Fold these 2 entries.
Entry 1:
Amino acid sequence: MSEITRVESFKCPNCGAPIEYDGQGEKTVKCPFCGEPALVPAQLLPKESANRVYSSVDARQRVTRTSSGGAWGVTLVPLILILVVIVIVAIIAISNTTAKYARLQAPTVAAVVSTRAPTPTTVPTPSPIPPFAQNTLTFGSAGKAPGQMTNPYRIGVDGKGNVYVADYTGGRVQVFNANGKYLSSFTNGDLEYHLDGFAVDRKGIVTMTDHTAMLRFNGLTGEKLNALPVPPGTGVTEVAVGPEGGMAAILYPLRPDGSRLAPESVALYDASGKVLQTLKAPVSERSGSDEMALALAFDGNDNLYIVSASSNEVFVFGPDGKFINRFGSGGNGADQIQSVNFIAIDSQNKVYLSDARGIAIFDATGRFIRRFKIDDGGHGMAFDDNDALWVAQTASITRYTLGR
């Protein structure tokens, strides 16, 4: 029996003319109208051939799609790689920063969780500022035994630092070394003696006045040396000794009953006790009042300072007796003085005045410097070669070391 051939037809994809297909399995046939090859539809092909054809078609289509998107692929791949690199670098950087921060914070965390008690911080205590005048030595007590004092009134220091203390009554003078150790004593032989003036030079020569006479003694041995001349009918009160041994004394006319009269005069002596000149009313003619209470001191240049208890002023005279300056006033101000009684001058020619409120300090021109209090009032004052201030007090002697 002859094989029957099945003929199908389909439209040419190029020109649309009908193309007959005999089902022999050819995948493409030639269009009899346009002459172009045409792909046989899958439904007309045998099953096996159709699968092969469509597999090829799918492959071609996939290749075609991939090829059509190739430009985007070329562009996107580098961008994706760059983004991946950036992300990796960022992750590494964050990781390193985290590790470093953890290392830096580790000591702090350890300190916080530590159970050891913290070491207390020691706050330094500021050193107290020492007072200007420091009491560095006090010696003596009330009594009449050696080293004791009944009424220490005047004081002086020699060039070796020995301290001479004179009682107001009885004429007794006691000598101590620079540490306050008792050395010796003497009297002028007059138990009714009342001391008016007292001075000690660098050699230890003591000069004492008792209203009508001025006597000199060897301070260490008590030997009486001589009496300085005092005009008849004249009383003598205060006395001071200069750096070269010269002296000054305040003189007053006396009434028949022995009381003093104004005006005052000041006698200037050389080291041997000879009168060089006499200043007539050197203070009262300038203050305008009777000056019955005066005190004396020399500075290192042999200038003489006379302080007035009535006007509370200081009057300065040169070695030749000529007036140089005056300063000071009475009142309650820090730079004023009240009831001044004694005067002392240090090696820098600063002037120390003791009054009812302590001790006021002025420079050589009269400019006020400062004021300080002392422990127990004050009578006589004297400086040693170290500029320590020695003060005779109620029943003792005090040495003050002073600031600068």
Note: The helical segments are 47-68, 70-113, 284-287.
Entry 2:
Amino acid sequence: METMRKLWGGAFGDESDSLVDRFGQSIESDLRFWREDVLGSIAHAQMLGRTGILASTETEAIVAGLQRILDEGPDSLPVDVEDIHTAVEVRLGELVGGVAGKLHTARSRNDQVATDTRLFLRGRIDELIPAIKSLQGALYDTARRHRSTVMPGYTHQQPAQPITLGLHQLGHFWAFQRVGRRLIHLREFVNLSPMGSAAVAGTGFPIDRDSTATALGFAAPIPNALDATSDRSFVLDALHWAASAMIDLSRVAQELVLWSGAEYGFVRLADAVTTGSSIMPQKRNPDMAELIRGRTGRAIGNWTAFAATMKALPLGYNRDTQDDKPGLFESLDLVADALGLTELMIRGADWQVERMRDAARHGFSTATDLADFLASTGMPFREAHELVGTLVKRCASGAFEPPIVAEVLHERLTKAEIDEALRRLAVERSVRQRNSLGGPGAAAIGIQLRHARKLLQRPGFASLT
């Protein structure tokens, strides 16, 4: 490895070892936010000019050079350097000469990297917001089309009560409303400016931190220079958000994996999101759903790994925090890709309506309806529960058999009550009568759909209240 160019070294008599250079170099990952570094430098240079710290001609030359770097793109930046800040300053020097060395007046790489990371994260948040809304739109559209499509509802992954596919898809819709709302809160924490805090204690130059914060679109400067340069709680919050979002996406993925299998057969995923086997011609593998499920572990790992890094760091910049960005970049990329892939799977899904309805008719999913009806005739609920359990034991087909139901009930109910009990076994009736708020009945699901539609049409992610 050739000698690495650095922004320091005057007090050192010997060059650092090549292993030290390689181990400490971050330019490869830093290039991800090269644009943010240049934009932050432009705002800083303009502030230096406004306050008279630099002459107007110096500021104009520096800003022009930085603008040219923006136009050239990252390929113009050198990579035989320690980090992105060095790369930009070296390239600026090639473009404008010695005046480039004045850009670093009244700042440090400590406040610079904190500013770059916040700018980058804020930009990614603004890209993720519409992606979440778009996935919610796919869930809403499916729920609206299948508001009456009966399917089994599960608890403990066992058939519980009949629901509708519409109710199920809206369940995920509300989960991603929470994902979006947490992201909006994260943006508020991120949108504060460290610029001007310098290394640890601010600067003696008469800088204007408010103006650089405004120029970069931040809500305000961070009040404490020590906190501003050492804080990475916003990164930890972002990693936690990403892990949480991936967990919700993984739950959708797991259902699609299960339901697209032959044993369920509830859904056929589109060719565009499935893969085949190199040896088994019949296979349609839900690989994208499996990868979302699997890579959720990486997002969780990035969060816990950085939490372990931060747990014992004292105030002040510490080099440990250099490792915040690779995990952050990966986790944000995972969420963005998983949101897009999940939407593709949902929008292209071919739901097997009859198979779902038939599955709901088995597994005794209307047992609670029958017990509730028996209780309504005056029978104690515990006795009704026991009696329905006896019926479940006697019906060997996996569904209630009307002759056996009538035989068991004939000594306890009138013929009219037995006829009504048999009608209560229909899954469609079970769904229709559940019109309490949040249920699958037509009136209740209509309320949910209208609520969801309003939230989709509003910017951001409003509270449910």
Note: The chain has three domains: 18-105, 110-204+217-356, 359-442.
